[in-house]
Amino acid sequence: MAQKPSIPKGTRDFLPFQVNRRNYIYDTIRTVFKKYGFAPIETPSFELSSTLMGKYGEEGDRLIFRILNSGDKVKKADLSALEQGNLPRFANSLSEKALRYDLTVPFARFVVQHQNDLTFPFKRYQIQPVWRADRPQKGRYQEFYQCDADVVGSDSLLFEVDFIQIFDEVLSALKVPDFTIQINNRKILSGIAEVTGEEDKIIDITVAIDKLDKIGEEGVIKELTEKEVSQQAIDMIRPLFNLNGDTQKMLAFMQEFLAESEVGKKGIEELEYVFAKTELLGLQNAKLEFDVTLARGLNYYTGAIFEVKANGVKMGSICGGGRYDDLTGLFGMKGLSGVGISFGADRIYDVLTELELFPTDINQTLRFLFINFGEQEVEYALPILRDLRNNGVTAEIYPSNAKLKKQFKYADDRNAEYTVIIGESELENKEITVKEMKSGEQETMALESFIAKHCK
């Protein structure tokens, strides 16, 4: 018995209408990226494991898909590491390559490798798939696309301001009615760790705080306790979980809270600059909010961090990003500041689907379908098809003279805008009959008139 075909969990096939919708999202994002001066690049779907491992924190490393060595390389597996229970070393001996977890670390590798060919500040965008061994659920897939834009070679906060504008412009163009851009600064989080006397626990604190919206206040406190953060520090941090309201008042509160931390005060100063310049430019639809609990658990962020959420939709963040002042330092290129953002195209797709925001004509990719009445009519139609296609008009002819009902159903299924009818009368009078599928109205005109109208 033949095996029933299936695909791995967390992956998806895409039907034509879905691809059209996805391209609508990508094209919208790409258009805005280009408007702000970003250039496209691409990187391989897999990297050396050494490029990726250790860059995302302990939790991120667990979600990296490793690629098993093949051929003679399998013989090089470190069995002594397995016997000693050193599973990370054993895994590394089995796998020299891994699927990329995101586009940011490969971009850092790209910049270092091609530094002599780039002009700095270098602004790039990249739209490609990434893979994560995460538990599949709504809005979370093991294979998904990211749409990234990054700037490296400048520490100017004007780029943070630009990225806020890009979030706002893209999601406004996609007609998302209500969304919030949340912003924080990792310097503020470092300041919190400093004033609570837990500098060495900064990673544990940020990872736990980042889960506040998922596991709640008590869940965060439990995790902090398990990570041996002192009770005194937890008591100091706890009031921050419910800090909300007016941005200026929250920043003023944090200014006082971090009065003894220079790095924390620097983070507040940077946020105040970004808010001021954003207010000067204005936003179309976005709400910009300071969220002191926003941590984004990736270790490489050092300054501003962003997350964007579609309000009224039960889903996590649909965009994110932040500043990473020394990410390229991981590959030997010190002192190169960078900042970037990522649009979660798959989650945006789900939001647009749930809110019914896709344009109704997005799948109308076929302008003309020529009905097939027989060989003589086909010979009459083919030169017209050629002229239409040469002028960038989508057109095709039904491949056989099947029953009209079947041909018109095909036209409906393909969302054809018009059907073209060439029968005996049209052949005899050198005419053509065009039927608009949506309204059912049809018009017979001279062939020359049709060509002049549609082949410009």
The largest sheet is: 8 strands, mixed
CATH superfamily of the largest domain: Bira Bifunctional Protein, Domain 2
Radius of gyration: 28 Å
CA-based shape: elongated
Residues in helix, %: 40-55%
Integer count of domains = 2
- CATH secondary-structure class of the largest domain: Alpha Beta
Describe what you observe in this structure.
The protein is an alpha+beta fold and 456 residues long. The protein folds into two domains: 16-46 and 101-354, Bira Bifunctional Protein, Domain 2 (BirA Bifunctional Protein, domain 2, 2-Layer Sandwich); 368-454, Rossmann fold (3-Layer(aba) Sandwich), CATH 3.40.50. Helices cover 42% and strands 18% of the residues. It is built from 18 helices and 16 strands. It has helices at 16-35, 49-52, 57-62, 79-83, 87-94, 104-113, 158-173, 186-195, 202-209, 212-226, 231-237, 247-257, 262-281, 345-354, 375-390, 404-413, 424-429, 447-454, and strands spanning 39-40, 46-48, 66-67, 97-99, 122-131, 143-152, 179-185, 287-290, 304-310, 319-323, 338-344, 368-370, 395-397, 418-421, 431-436, 442-446. It has an eight-stranded mixed sheet with strand order 1-5-6-11-10-9-7-8. A five-stranded mixed sheet has the order 13-12-14-15-16. A three-stranded antiparallel sheet has the order 2-4-3. A hairpin with an 8-residue loop joins strand 9 and strand 10 (319-323). Helix 1 (16-35) crosses helix 14 (345-354), helix 9 packs antiparallel against helix 10 (212-226) and helix 12 (247-257) runs antiparallel to helix 13. It is elongated and about 95 Å long. It starts with 15 loop residues before the first helix and ends with a helix.
